[in-house]
Design goal:
Elements (H helix, E strand, L loop, with lengths): L1 E2 L13 H10 L4 E4 L8 H11 L2 E12 L2 E9 L6 H27 L6 H8 L6 H10 L6 H9 L12 E2 H10 L3 E4 L9 H14 L3 E6 L4 H13 L3 E5 L14 H6 L4 H8 L3
Parallel strand pairs: 1-2, 2-3, 3-5, 6-7, 7-8
Antiparallel strand pairs: 3-4, 4-6
The structure holds adenosine monophosphate, zinc ion (ZN) and fe (iii) ion (FE) (2 copies).
C-alpha cells in the first residue's frame, strides 16, 4: 500500500513531517510522498524519519496554478530536488504572496467588524506555508466561528466576503519549475476542477504539451467514474497514473492516510513508473 499525496504542518496539515511518516509506517504503508502546498520545508524531516523506519519516501510538493482563466489547477511535483535555486526562488515568491494575501484578508475581516489580529493567524500557522486554513483556525480561536468548516463558509470560500484569490504561477511556469528541479509533474485530483470531460481532455492535452507526466487518477475522493476517465486520459496522452489520500490530519476530517490505497491498494510499481519519468 502506498500514498502519494499528504500534507504536514509545513503547509496545512496537522501532523509534523516526522509524525506523518511514523503514522504511514504504523498503518503499514510501503511508500509515502509528502506534498505540501508551495513548500519543501517538511522534506528533510520526513525523509530522515522515513529512512529510519524503512519507508520508501518520495519528496514532493503541490503548486496551485492557473491556465486559460482557470485557477487552482493543482500540480504535484514528485522527486523534486529541494535544493534547486530556481525552485527555491519560486517558492519564496509564493510565500511572500501568501503572507500579503493573509494580511489583506485580515484587513477585510476587520473592516467587516470581525476583529482578528494578524499575529493570531501567524501563531496558527507556526511558520508553515500560510493559508486559509490558518485564517480559519484563528477565526475559530477568536470565537468568530464554531469550527473550521463554518469559518470557511462564512468568510473564506470564493464568493464569501473576505475571500481573496491566491497569486498563482501559470501551469507552464509550475511545470517548468518542477521539471527544472528534476521533478515529475502530475495533475492533482482532476475532478475538483469540475470540468466536463471535453474541457478536461483539453486541459490535459495542453498540459501534456507543457511537460506534464502524470494524472492523479486514484485520489481519495474521486468516484469510480472519475478514476476510469483519468485512466483513459492517461492512456491517450501517455501519462503515468498516481494516487493518494490528500491527508491533512484534523484539517480534513474523514480523510485517512492511505485511503486511496485502502480501496484500491495502490501498488509500489506506480512509484517506479513515476521515478522513471524524471527529466
Ligand atoms: P489556500 O491555499 O490558502 O487557498 O487554502 C487552501 C486550503 O484550504 C486547501 O488545502 C483546503 O484544504 C482548505 N479548504 C478550502 N476550502 C475549504 C472549505 N470549504 N472547508 C475547509 N477547508 C477548506
Ligand atoms: Zn491543503
Ligand atoms: Fe490540492
Ligand atoms: Fe493536497
Amino acid at each position: 500500500m502506498i500514498d502519494l499525496h499528504a500534507h504536514s504542518t509545513a503547509s496545512d496539515g496537522t501532523l509534523a513531517p516526522g509524525e506523518l511518516v511514523q503514522l504511514a509506517h504504523d498503518k503499514g504503508l510501503e511508500a509515502l510522498a509528502l506534498t505540501d502546498h508551495d513548500t519543501v520545508g517538511g522534506l528533510v524531516e520526513a525523509s530522515a524519519g522515513a529512512a529510519r523506519l524503512g519507508l520508501r519516501f518520495v519528496p514532493g510538493l503541490e503548486l496551485s496554478a492557473k491556465w486559460n482563466g482557470l485557477s487552482e489547477v493543482h500540480v504535484l511535483g514528485y522527486c523534486v530536488n529541494a535544493e534547486c535555486g530556481r525552485l527555491s526562488e519560486a517558492l519564496r515568491w509564493l510565500r511572500s504572496c501568501r503572507r500579503q494575501r493573509a494580511e489583506e484578508i485580515v484587513e477585510k475581516l476587520n473592516r467587516l467588524g470581525v476583529s482578528l489580529e494578524f499575529d493570531r493567524v501567524l501563531a496558527a500557522a507556526r511558520g508553515s506555508s500560510l493559508g486559509r486554513p490558518h485564517l480559519a483556525a484563528a477565526l475559530v480561536q477568536a470565537r468568530h466561528a464554531a469550527d473550521l468548516a463554518e469559518a470557511f463558509r462564512l468568510w473564506l470560500v470564493p464568493g464569501a466576503p473576505a475571500y481573496i484569490e491566491k497569486q498563482q504561477l501559470t501551469t507552464a511556469e509550475a511545470l517548468e519549475v518542477i521539471r527544472g528541479s528534476g521533478g515529475v509533474p502530475v495533475l492533482a485530483h482532476p475532478a475538483t476542477l469540475q470540468l466536463d470531460s471535453e474541457r478536461l481532455a483539453k486541459l490535459v492535452s495542453a498540459l501534456a504539451e507543457q511537460g506534464l507526466s502524470g494524472l492523479e487518477a486514484y485520489w481519495s475522493r474521486h468516484t469510480e467514474g472519475e478514476v476510469r476517465y483519468c485512466e483513459e486520459l492517461a492512456r491517450t496522452y501517455r501519462l503515468v497514473v498516481t494516487g493518494g489520500s490528500d491527508f491533512h490530519g484534523q484539517n480534513k476530517p474523514g480523510i485517512e492516510l492511505g485511503m486511496a490505497a485502502g480501496r484500491r491498494d495502490l501498488p509500489m510499481k506506480l512509484v517506479d513508473e513515476l521515478e522513471q519519468r524524471r527529466p
